[in-house]
Amino acid sequence: MKLITAIIKPSKLEDVKLALNAFGITGMTVSEASGFGRQGGHTEVYRGAEYTVDLIPKIRIEVLIDGAVAEKVIDVIVKAASTGKIGDGKVWSTPVDNIVRVRTGERGSAAI
Amino acid sequence: MDVVLNSGDTAWMLASTALVMFMTPGLAFFYGGMVRSKSVLNMMMMSMVTIGIVSILWVFYGYELAFGHTSDSPWFGGFSLSGLGTKVNELTNNGGTYPIPLLVFAAFQLMFAIITPALISGAIADRVKFSAWAVFVAIWSTVVYFPVAHWVFAFGHKVGDEVTGVGFLAGKGLEDFAGGTAVHINAGAAGLALAIVLGKRIGWRKEAMRPHSLPLVMLGAGLLWFGWFGFNAGSALAANGIAGLAFMNTQVATAGALIGWILVEKIRHGHPTSLGVASGAVSGLVAITPACAFVAPWAAVVIGFIAGVLCSLAVDLKFRFGFDDSLDVVGVHLVGGIWGSLAVGFFGASAVNSVGVDGLLYGGGAELLGKQAIGVGLVGAYSFIVTLIIGYAIEKTIGFRVTKDSEVEGIDLNEHAESAYEMSSSSRGGSLI
């Protein structure tokens, strides 16, 4: 079992969601995040006072999946999230020990 | 000949009074949007509580102190504790009789007395103890605004040819139609004094202190602009041609200033901003306030445009001199008020208003400009010095500033036990006690 975490541009959320649905992924957790990488920040000016804004808004998607499809799911996300420009984000996978579905108490792969 | 009440004039003055009242909640939005989300309620509360305090003072002695004529002093009106009870059924008499009820005039002038101290609050955002602010408003109104309103706006009680109780600057020929000196220079100089007394906000020039809601700022600027037609055109105290001139000049000067401010932004920083549009508009409204009934509309555009350019550069002064005038009361109201008041000395034209005097550009020489400069200097100096004294007195007795912890955590929570925004129902938890 794996946890796929993707940090993407907010504008690509809909595309990634549709692509994952089409692939057969039925659940995910989406949250708003902010941070910076190679893209860096930007400058804002208020009445002549300039501010650098380091943290750029991003979307974090988390998906629990069977280990066997991890590479494919990553490919789906990367393809859907890509604009080719700096700031497209990152996708990574982490091994997961156990998963429990709260309603039924199912454990392991059955809970995905 | 007895003057009888004129329903047209009275109707316009009632409407104008309501328009000017609306400016103070408008100012609350204008300032509220500019502060951080943790102090927006406190910022708006400073304006709202001023409405409460000054209205009450006005009834019991404020109006008399500013416009009463029992003392025949050029420095203040008079004292009467009648609670305006003896003024019912009287007509307005201010340098001559106006066919409107005195209480309508008193209500109109009350709105000016309210917004002037409210304007000061922008200079000291995020860090003032609310109770200390309330005390300050009461004292400042009593010893600064009410007397200064008398100096500038009281043209005396006229019976036959005899006039008593003319304000000292009004008597000297200062041309300030709606309050460039009494309102804007007065508030701007006081804002500078309080910014010095209170000191900088924690983290000033280190942390980002960005406006938390520019749409609120735009809303506030819109309300101010709308209300300002009452402020300026209502100052004619009649529904007549002078009111029409003031109305048109208010519109076009503001337009000029808005364009002037964002042009400077575009040239200096590359982007015209929404805060620039809102600030530019207000700087134009400020600058045309003293001049609105004394200049031709083309001149109003020029006065406004120069105000927009000048004020957009003046907001940098606080960084150069290191005082935290948080929302630029000095850069906009003091500088805009000074420019507008002096501009009358250049652009004043007796051809557009027979009561007015020709300025420098109309062959009137420098005499009017000199009178304007005296008004600017005296009101500015009096307000600055007296505000410094009141400020330090409050600081040394009850304390003027909130604690460091409460400033950092947020003044809304600590002074008012509220927070402005509940963005997500689950984000903070908690339950009813």
Q: Could you explain how this protein is built, in words?
A:
- The complex is a heterodimer of chains A (112) and B (433).
- Chain A is an alpha+beta fold.
- Chain A has one domain (2-111): Alpha-Beta Plaits (2-Layer Sandwich), CATH 3.30.70.120.
- In chain A, 21% of the residues lie in helices and 37% in strands.
- Chain A contains 2 helices and 6 strands.
- Chain A has helices at 13-23, 70-81, and strands at 2-8, 29-35, 42-46, 49-53, 56-65, 89-95.
- A 4-stranded antiparallel β-sheet of chain A has the order 2-5-1-6, covered by helices on one side. Chain A has a two-stranded antiparallel ribbon with strand order 3-4.
- In chain A, helix 1 packs antiparallel against helix 2 (70-81).
- Chain A is elongated and about 60 Å long.
- The N and C termini of chain A lie close together (9 Å).
- Chain B has 433 residues and is mostly helical.
- Chain B has a single domain, classed as Ammonium transporter AmtB like domains (Ammonium transporter fold, Orthogonal Bundle).
- Helix content of chain B is 63%, strand content 4%.
- Chain B is built from 15 helices and 4 strands.
- Chain B has helices spanning 7-34, 40-67, 102-120, 130-153, 168-171, 180-198, 214-233, 241-269, 274-291, 297-314, 317-321, 329-347, 367-397, 404-409, 411-416, and strands spanning 91-93, 97-101, 155-159, 162-166.
- Chain B has a two-stranded antiparallel ribbon with strand order 1-2. In chain B, strands 3-4 form a two-stranded antiparallel ribbon.
- In chain B, helix 3 (102-120) runs parallel beside helix 6.
- The longest helix of chain B has 31 residues, at 367-397.
- Chain B starts with 6 loop residues before the first helix and ends in a 17-residue tail after the last helix.
- The model of chain B has no long low-confidence stretch (mean pLDDT 95).
- Chain A binds chain B through residues 44-51, 53, and chain B through 208, 210-211, 265, 268-269, 271, 273, 275-276, 279, 312, 315-316, 319, 328, 331.
